[in-house]
Input
Amino acid sequence: MNLKVVEIKQQLDQFRVEDGAHLEAFRLQFLSKKSELQELLGEVKNIAPELRKEFGQAVNNLKQYAQELYEQYKNIVESTTPVQISEIDVTRPSTLYSSGSLHPVTIVMNQVCEIFEKIGFSSVSGPDIEDDWHVFSALNFPQDHPARDMQDTFFVNLNPEFLLRTHTSSLQVRTMEQCKPPIRVICPGRVYRNETITARSHCIFHQVEGLYIANDVSFADMKQVLLYFAQEMFGADTKIRLRPSYFPFTEPSAEMDIECKLCSGKGCNVCKFNGWVEILGCGMVDPNVLENCKINSKTYSGYAFGMGIERIAMLKYKINDIRLFFENDLRFLEQFVNE
Ligand code: DAH
Output
Protein backbone atom coordinates (compact mmCIF):
# COMPACT_ATOMS: atom_id res chain seq x y z
CA MET A 1 0.00 0.00 0.00
CA ASN A 2 1.27 3.42 -0.90
CA LEU A 3 2.68 5.18 2.17
CA LYS A 4 0.94 8.42 1.38
CA VAL A 5 -2.45 6.65 1.34
CA VAL A 6 -1.81 5.21 4.80
CA GLU A 7 -0.73 8.59 6.13
CA ILE A 8 -3.81 10.38 4.83
CA LYS A 9 -6.09 7.65 6.23
CA GLN A 10 -4.53 8.22 9.66
CA GLN A 11 -4.99 11.97 9.39
CA LEU A 12 -8.64 11.41 8.48
CA ASP A 13 -9.23 9.21 11.49
CA GLN A 14 -7.58 11.61 13.89
CA PHE A 15 -9.35 14.73 12.67
CA ARG A 16 -11.97 15.98 15.17
CA VAL A 17 -14.93 17.94 13.86
CA GLU A 18 -17.00 19.71 16.48
CA ASP A 19 -18.25 22.85 14.76
CA GLY A 20 -18.59 24.59 11.40
CA ALA A 21 -14.99 25.89 11.41
CA HIS A 22 -13.62 22.38 11.94
CA LEU A 23 -15.85 21.12 9.14
CA GLU A 24 -14.48 23.67 6.68
CA ALA A 25 -10.90 22.85 7.72
CA PHE A 26 -11.69 19.18 7.07
CA ARG A 27 -13.02 19.99 3.60
CA LEU A 28 -9.94 22.07 2.73
CA GLN A 29 -7.50 19.44 4.02
CA PHE A 30 -9.07 16.38 2.39
CA LEU A 31 -11.52 17.31 -0.33
CA SER A 32 -10.42 20.59 -1.96
CA LYS A 33 -8.65 20.73 -5.34
CA LYS A 34 -5.36 21.49 -3.62
CA SER A 35 -5.61 18.73 -1.04
CA GLU A 36 -2.98 15.98 -0.89
CA LEU A 37 -5.69 13.45 -1.63
CA GLN A 38 -6.64 15.27 -4.83
CA GLU A 39 -2.97 15.40 -5.82
CA LEU A 40 -2.69 11.64 -5.32
CA LEU A 41 -5.64 11.16 -7.66
CA GLY A 42 -3.79 13.24 -10.27
CA GLU A 43 -0.80 10.95 -9.96
CA VAL A 44 -2.67 7.79 -10.89
CA LYS A 45 -1.95 8.29 -14.59
CA ASN A 46 1.82 8.45 -13.94
CA ILE A 47 1.97 5.10 -12.16
CA ALA A 48 3.44 2.08 -13.97
CA PRO A 49 0.56 0.28 -15.78
CA GLU A 50 0.90 -2.97 -13.80
CA LEU A 51 0.47 -1.10 -10.48
CA ARG A 52 -1.97 1.51 -11.67
CA LYS A 53 -5.19 -0.42 -11.04
CA GLU A 54 -4.37 -1.25 -7.43
CA PHE A 55 -3.11 2.24 -6.66
CA GLY A 56 -6.09 3.90 -8.32
CA GLN A 57 -8.51 1.76 -6.36
CA ALA A 58 -6.81 2.56 -3.01
CA VAL A 59 -6.87 6.32 -3.66
CA ASN A 60 -10.49 6.21 -4.82
CA ASN A 61 -11.55 4.29 -1.74
CA LEU A 62 -9.78 6.85 0.42
CA LYS A 63 -11.53 9.70 -1.34
CA GLN A 64 -14.88 8.01 -0.89
CA TYR A 65 -14.10 7.45 2.79
CA ALA A 66 -13.20 11.15 3.22
CA GLN A 67 -16.40 12.16 1.45
CA GLU A 68 -18.54 9.95 3.71
CA LEU A 69 -16.89 11.27 6.84
CA TYR A 70 -17.48 14.79 5.63
CA GLU A 71 -21.21 14.11 5.10
CA GLN A 72 -21.53 12.58 8.56
CA TYR A 73 -19.80 15.50 10.26
CA LYS A 74 -21.88 17.94 8.26
CA ASN A 75 -25.10 16.35 9.46
CA ILE A 76 -23.97 16.48 13.05
CA VAL A 77 -22.77 20.09 12.90
CA GLU A 78 -25.94 21.27 11.16
CA SER A 79 -28.30 19.50 13.54
CA THR A 80 -26.87 21.22 16.61
CA THR A 81 -27.98 24.80 16.66
CA PRO A 82 -25.10 26.97 17.73
CA VAL A 83 -25.73 29.12 20.78
CA GLN A 84 -24.76 32.71 20.22
CA ILE A 85 -22.81 34.02 23.16
CA SER A 86 -24.80 37.24 22.97
CA GLU A 87 -28.05 35.28 23.51
CA ILE A 88 -26.98 34.19 27.01
CA ASP A 89 -28.17 36.53 29.74
CA VAL A 90 -25.54 35.95 32.40
CA THR A 91 -27.41 38.16 34.89
CA ARG A 92 -30.52 35.93 34.89
CA PRO A 93 -31.08 34.05 38.18
CA SER A 94 -30.25 30.38 37.73
CA THR A 95 -33.00 27.74 37.76
CA LEU A 96 -33.80 26.85 41.34
CA TYR A 97 -33.38 23.19 42.05
CA SER A 98 -34.86 21.69 45.17
CA SER A 99 -32.51 19.83 47.44
CA GLY A 100 -33.62 17.16 49.87
CA SER A 101 -33.64 17.67 53.61
CA LEU A 102 -33.53 15.53 56.71
CA HIS A 103 -36.70 13.70 57.73
CA PRO A 104 -38.23 15.10 60.95
CA VAL A 105 -37.67 11.74 62.66
CA THR A 106 -33.97 11.93 61.79
CA ILE A 107 -33.81 15.55 62.95
CA VAL A 108 -35.31 14.73 66.35
CA MET A 109 -33.30 11.53 66.71
CA ASN A 110 -30.08 13.50 66.07
CA GLN A 111 -31.15 16.15 68.58
CA VAL A 112 -31.82 13.55 71.26
CA CYS A 113 -28.45 11.90 70.62
CA GLU A 114 -26.61 15.24 70.69
CA ILE A 115 -28.18 16.17 74.03
CA PHE A 116 -26.91 12.95 75.62
CA GLU A 117 -23.56 13.03 73.82
CA LYS A 118 -22.91 16.42 75.42
CA ILE A 119 -22.88 14.75 78.84
CA GLY A 120 -20.70 11.82 77.87
CA PHE A 121 -23.03 9.19 76.38
CA SER A 122 -21.83 7.48 73.19
CA SER A 123 -24.14 6.25 70.50
CA VAL A 124 -24.26 2.56 69.52
CA SER A 125 -26.31 0.64 66.97
CA GLY A 126 -27.27 -2.97 66.33
CA PRO A 127 -29.37 -5.33 64.21
CA ASP A 128 -33.08 -4.79 63.45
CA ILE A 129 -33.57 -8.57 63.15
CA GLU A 130 -32.89 -9.93 66.60
CA ASP A 131 -33.24 -13.13 68.58
CA ASP A 132 -35.48 -13.87 71.54
CA TRP A 133 -32.56 -13.64 73.99
CA HIS A 134 -31.63 -10.01 73.24
CA VAL A 135 -35.19 -8.70 72.92
CA PHE A 136 -36.91 -10.64 75.72
CA SER A 137 -35.14 -13.36 77.70
CA ALA A 138 -32.04 -11.45 78.78
CA LEU A 139 -34.29 -8.52 79.69
CA ASN A 140 -36.11 -10.61 82.26
CA PHE A 141 -39.35 -11.10 80.30
CA PRO A 142 -41.08 -14.20 81.71
CA GLN A 143 -41.62 -16.98 79.13
CA ASP A 144 -45.37 -16.30 79.05
CA HIS A 145 -45.16 -12.49 78.96
CA PRO A 146 -47.82 -11.04 76.63
CA ALA A 147 -45.23 -8.92 74.77
CA ARG A 148 -43.89 -12.15 73.21
CA ASP A 149 -47.33 -12.85 71.88
CA MET A 150 -47.92 -12.92 68.12
CA GLN A 151 -50.09 -9.80 68.60
CA ASP A 152 -47.08 -7.60 69.28
CA THR A 153 -44.08 -9.18 67.65
CA PHE A 154 -43.23 -9.82 64.01
CA PHE A 155 -41.48 -13.16 63.86
CA VAL A 156 -39.35 -14.28 60.94
CA ASN A 157 -41.36 -16.92 59.06
CA LEU A 158 -38.46 -19.21 58.28
CA ASN A 159 -37.24 -19.32 61.86
CA PRO A 160 -39.40 -17.97 64.71
CA GLU A 161 -36.29 -17.81 66.91
CA PHE A 162 -35.66 -14.57 65.02
CA LEU A 163 -37.88 -11.52 65.17
CA LEU A 164 -37.96 -7.81 64.36
CA ARG A 165 -36.92 -6.00 67.52
CA THR A 166 -39.90 -4.53 69.37
CA HIS A 167 -37.70 -2.09 71.29
CA THR A 168 -34.12 -0.84 71.25
CA SER A 169 -33.65 -2.24 74.77
CA SER A 170 -32.08 -5.21 72.96
CA LEU A 171 -29.05 -2.95 72.51
CA GLN A 172 -28.66 -2.64 76.30
CA VAL A 173 -28.07 -6.37 76.35
CA ARG A 174 -25.65 -6.33 73.42
CA THR A 175 -23.68 -3.48 74.97
CA MET A 176 -23.50 -5.07 78.43
CA GLU A 177 -22.40 -8.38 76.88
CA GLN A 178 -19.58 -6.67 75.01
CA CYS A 179 -18.36 -3.89 77.33
CA LYS A 180 -17.19 -3.69 80.90
CA PRO A 181 -18.66 -1.00 83.20
CA PRO A 182 -18.66 1.94 83.42
CA ILE A 183 -21.07 1.95 80.46
CA ARG A 184 -22.78 5.10 79.23
CA VAL A 185 -24.55 4.62 75.90
CA ILE A 186 -27.54 5.70 73.90
CA CYS A 187 -28.98 3.43 71.25
CA PRO A 188 -31.05 5.01 68.47
CA GLY A 189 -32.91 2.72 66.09
CA ARG A 190 -36.06 1.57 64.32
CA VAL A 191 -38.45 -0.80 66.04
CA TYR A 192 -41.37 -2.91 64.84
CA ARG A 193 -44.63 -3.97 66.46
CA ASN A 194 -47.60 -5.86 65.16
CA GLU A 195 -49.98 -2.99 65.89
CA THR A 196 -52.96 -1.60 64.06
CA ILE A 197 -51.99 1.62 62.34
CA THR A 198 -53.90 4.59 63.78
CA ALA A 199 -53.27 8.30 64.35
CA ARG A 200 -51.40 7.43 67.56
CA SER A 201 -49.66 4.12 66.82
CA HIS A 202 -47.76 2.57 63.94
CA CYS A 203 -46.17 -0.79 63.24
CA ILE A 204 -42.82 0.90 62.55
CA PHE A 205 -41.37 3.64 64.71
CA HIS A 206 -38.11 4.79 66.26
CA GLN A 207 -36.71 4.75 69.76
CA VAL A 208 -33.67 5.98 71.61
CA GLU A 209 -32.61 3.81 74.49
CA GLY A 210 -30.23 4.98 77.23
CA LEU A 211 -28.11 2.95 79.64
CA TYR A 212 -25.74 3.95 82.42
CA ILE A 213 -23.95 1.31 84.50
CA ALA A 214 -21.29 2.13 87.11
CA ASN A 215 -20.67 1.93 90.86
CA ASP A 216 -23.35 3.45 93.06
CA VAL A 217 -25.70 4.78 90.40
CA SER A 218 -28.88 6.06 92.00
CA PHE A 219 -32.45 6.82 91.00
CA ALA A 220 -31.67 10.49 91.75
CA ASP A 221 -28.84 10.41 89.15
CA MET A 222 -31.34 9.19 86.59
CA LYS A 223 -33.92 11.81 87.49
CA GLN A 224 -31.37 14.61 87.14
CA VAL A 225 -30.20 13.40 83.71
CA LEU A 226 -33.77 13.07 82.48
CA LEU A 227 -34.65 16.55 83.74
CA TYR A 228 -31.60 17.90 81.88
CA PHE A 229 -32.78 16.08 78.74
CA ALA A 230 -36.36 17.38 78.97
CA GLN A 231 -35.22 20.97 79.43
CA GLU A 232 -32.70 20.79 76.57
CA MET A 233 -35.32 19.28 74.28
CA PHE A 234 -38.43 21.26 75.21
CA GLY A 235 -37.08 24.45 76.82
CA ALA A 236 -35.58 25.51 80.15
CA ASP A 237 -38.96 26.00 81.83
CA THR A 238 -40.05 22.39 81.19
CA LYS A 239 -41.40 20.55 84.23
CA ILE A 240 -41.18 16.78 84.62
CA ARG A 241 -42.78 14.21 86.88
CA LEU A 242 -42.08 10.51 87.41
CA ARG A 243 -44.92 8.03 87.93
CA PRO A 244 -44.38 4.47 89.17
CA SER A 245 -44.72 1.91 86.39
CA TYR A 246 -43.67 -1.62 85.47
CA PHE A 247 -41.10 -2.98 83.01
CA PRO A 248 -39.63 -6.47 83.38
CA PHE A 249 -36.07 -5.18 82.98
CA THR A 250 -36.10 -2.35 85.56
CA GLU A 251 -36.87 -2.25 89.28
CA PRO A 252 -38.15 0.19 90.34
CA SER A 253 -39.64 1.41 87.05
CA ALA A 254 -41.21 4.72 86.16
CA GLU A 255 -42.75 6.68 83.35
CA MET A 256 -41.77 10.28 82.85
CA ASP A 257 -44.25 12.99 81.89
CA ILE A 258 -43.59 16.58 80.90
CA GLU A 259 -46.04 19.33 81.62
CA CYS A 260 -48.16 19.85 78.52
CA LYS A 261 -46.65 22.63 76.42
CA LEU A 262 -49.87 23.39 74.60
CA CYS A 263 -51.98 24.31 77.62
CA SER A 264 -49.18 24.91 80.19
CA GLY A 265 -50.64 22.19 82.35
CA LYS A 266 -54.18 23.50 82.36
CA GLY A 267 -55.61 20.60 80.36
CA CYS A 268 -56.34 20.21 76.64
CA ASN A 269 -57.08 17.40 74.21
CA VAL A 270 -53.37 16.68 73.56
CA CYS A 271 -52.76 15.91 77.26
CA LYS A 272 -56.22 14.33 77.57
CA PHE A 273 -57.13 17.12 80.00
CA ASN A 274 -54.71 16.13 82.74
CA GLY A 275 -51.94 18.67 82.06
CA TRP A 276 -49.14 16.11 81.57
CA VAL A 277 -47.89 14.02 78.62
CA GLU A 278 -45.84 10.86 78.89
CA ILE A 279 -42.53 10.92 77.00
CA LEU A 280 -40.48 7.97 78.21
CA GLY A 281 -40.10 4.86 80.33
CA CYS A 282 -37.20 4.41 82.74
CA GLY A 283 -35.93 2.67 85.85
CA MET A 284 -33.03 1.06 87.69
CA VAL A 285 -31.67 -1.91 85.72
CA ASP A 286 -32.99 -5.12 87.32
CA PRO A 287 -30.11 -7.14 88.90
CA ASN A 288 -31.31 -10.19 86.92
CA VAL A 289 -30.59 -8.31 83.69
CA LEU A 290 -27.07 -7.40 84.87
CA GLU A 291 -26.38 -11.02 85.79
CA ASN A 292 -27.80 -12.27 82.46
CA CYS A 293 -25.18 -10.05 80.80
CA LYS A 294 -22.39 -11.28 83.09
CA ILE A 295 -22.16 -8.04 85.09
CA ASN A 296 -21.83 -8.41 88.87
CA SER A 297 -25.00 -6.92 90.34
CA LYS A 298 -23.38 -6.60 93.79
CA THR A 299 -20.67 -4.28 92.46
CA TYR A 300 -22.59 -2.42 89.80
CA SER A 301 -25.94 -0.71 89.43
CA GLY A 302 -27.41 1.43 86.70
CA TYR A 303 -30.39 3.08 85.12
CA ALA A 304 -32.00 2.75 81.72
CA PHE A 305 -34.59 4.68 79.78
CA GLY A 306 -36.31 4.46 76.43
CA MET A 307 -38.32 6.92 74.40
CA GLY A 308 -40.31 6.96 71.18
CA ILE A 309 -38.91 9.49 68.71
CA GLU A 310 -42.15 10.04 66.78
CA ARG A 311 -43.87 10.87 70.05
CA ILE A 312 -41.22 13.46 70.96
CA ALA A 313 -41.40 14.91 67.43
CA MET A 314 -45.22 15.08 67.61
CA LEU A 315 -45.03 17.05 70.85
CA LYS A 316 -42.26 19.30 69.65
CA TYR A 317 -43.83 20.17 66.31
CA LYS A 318 -47.50 19.78 67.35
CA ILE A 319 -48.18 16.97 64.88
CA ASN A 320 -51.39 15.11 65.60
CA ASP A 321 -51.09 12.02 63.39
CA ILE A 322 -48.13 9.59 63.50
CA ARG A 323 -48.95 8.30 59.99
CA LEU A 324 -47.73 11.58 58.50
CA PHE A 325 -44.14 10.51 59.23
CA PHE A 326 -44.41 7.53 56.90
CA GLU A 327 -46.38 8.88 53.95
CA ASN A 328 -43.52 10.73 52.23
CA ASP A 329 -45.81 13.63 51.40
CA LEU A 330 -43.50 16.49 50.39
CA ARG A 331 -45.98 19.09 51.65
CA PHE A 332 -45.40 17.68 55.14
CA LEU A 333 -41.66 17.01 54.83
CA GLU A 334 -40.81 20.40 53.34
CA GLN A 335 -41.86 22.10 56.57
CA PHE A 336 -38.70 20.79 58.25
CA VAL A 337 -36.18 22.03 55.69
CA ASN A 338 -34.77 24.71 57.98
CA GLU A 339 -34.77 22.73 61.22
N1 DAH B 1 -38.40 -0.66 76.06
C1 DAH B 1 -39.52 0.14 76.55
C2 DAH B 1 -40.60 0.22 75.48
O1 DAH B 1 -40.35 -0.10 74.37
C3 DAH B 1 -39.05 1.51 76.89
C4 DAH B 1 -38.20 1.48 78.10
C5 DAH B 1 -38.75 1.58 79.33
C6 DAH B 1 -36.84 1.34 78.00
C7 DAH B 1 -38.01 1.55 80.48
C8 DAH B 1 -36.05 1.30 79.13
C9 DAH B 1 -36.66 1.42 80.38
O2 DAH B 1 -34.75 1.16 79.10
O3 DAH B 1 -35.87 1.40 81.48
O4 DAH B 1 -41.69 0.60 75.78
The mean pLDDT is 91. The radius of gyration is 38 Å. The pocket of 3,4-dihydroxyphenylalanine is lined by residues 167, 169, 209, 247, 250, 281-283, 304-306 (CB under 6 Å).
